[in-house]
Amino acid sequence: MHSVTFKERLEHAKFRLQTQYDKLEQTYSRIQQRDKDLFQRCVGAQLSNDPAHARIYANECAEIRKIAKVVLGSQLALERVILRLETVSEFGTIYAEIAPVMNIVKDTRSKIAGVVPQVANELDEVNSLLEDLTVETGEVSASTIATEVSDSEAKKILDETGLIADERLREHFPDLPAIAEHPPAPKLEPANNIGNNGDLQDEVYKYAKEHPSFSIASCADELGKSPHEIRTAIDRLRDNGKLMIE
C-alpha cells in the first residue's frame, strides 16, 4: 500500500506543478500582448517624430521583456521537473532523481516570487510535499535535504532552460527600434537660403552702395543668390529705411 500511496502523492505533485505551468503560460501570453501594444506605440511615436514618448515605450518594453524571460524560464524549468517526476513515478522513487527536482523548484520559486506570487506560494507547497515523500522512503533524512541545496545537475538544467528561454524570446519579441538619446538638432538652413536674411541684407546694402544703379539680376549674379532672395532683401532694407528705391 505504501508504494501506491507514494505514487498517488507523486501524481498529485505533478498535477499541482502542471497547474502552475499553465498559469505561467497564461501570464506569458498576457506579457506578449502587452509588449505588442507598447511596441506599436513606440513605432507610432517615432513615426510622429516624438522621440521622448518613443523612448518611454521602448524602456517599458525592455522591462516587460525582463519579466517575460523570468516567466518563460520558469515554465521551461517546471516542464523539466514534471518530466523527471514522470520518470520517478514509472521506475520508482530514487533520491538521486528527486534531489535535483527539489532544487529546481526552489530556484524557480525564488525567481518567480516577485512576478507571480501565487505560483511561488504553490511551488513552496509542492517542494514541501516532495521533501516529505523523500523522507518517507527512508532514503535520506530531512537534515540531509536541508543542507544539500546546491546540486550540479539542477544547475545544469537551469542553465539549459535559461539558454532556451533566450532563444525563444528572440523569436517571440521583435527587436526594439533604435532611438536617439537626445532629440535631433533643428535643421539649419543652408548659407545661401533666405533664412540668413541679415547677412544677405548686409551684402545687398554693400553692393548697392558700390553700384548706385544696379539690376536685381546683376546683383543676384554677383552675390550668387537667386533673384527672389535679392528682391526680398531689398524689400526689407527699404522697410527699414536703409535703401531708397527710385
Kindly describe this structure.
There is one protein chain. With 246 residues, the chain is mainly alpha-helical. The chain has helices spanning 2-47, 51-91, 95-112, 117-136, 142-147, 152-172, 197-210, 216-223, 227-239. The longest helix has 46 residues, at 2-47. It is rod-shaped, with a radius of gyration of 36 Å.
Give the structure's gist in a few sentences.
With 246 residues, the chain is mainly alpha-helical.
Radius of gyration using CA atoms only? 36 Å
Q: What is the CA-CA span between the terminal residues?
A: 121 Å
Low-confidence region ranges? 140-150, 183-195
Strand content: under 5%
Structural class: mainly alpha
Overall number of domains: 2
> What is the number of E strands?
0
Topology as a string of helices (H) and strands (E): HHHHHHHHH
Average pLDDT, all residues: 78
Helix content: over 70%
Sheet of most strands: none
Which word captures the global form? rod-shaped
Query: How large is the count of helical segments?
Result: 9
Using brief descriptors, characterize the structure shown.
single chain; 246 residues; mainly alpha; Arc Repressor Mutant, subunit A; rod-shaped
Task: Give the arrangement of secondary structure elements.
Layout (H helix, E strand, L loop, with lengths): L1 H46 L3 H41 L3 H18 L4 H20 L5 H6 L4 H21 L24 H14 L5 H8 L3 H13 L7
Helix pairs in contact: 1-2, 1-4, 2-3, 2-6, 3-4, 3-6, 7-9, 8-9
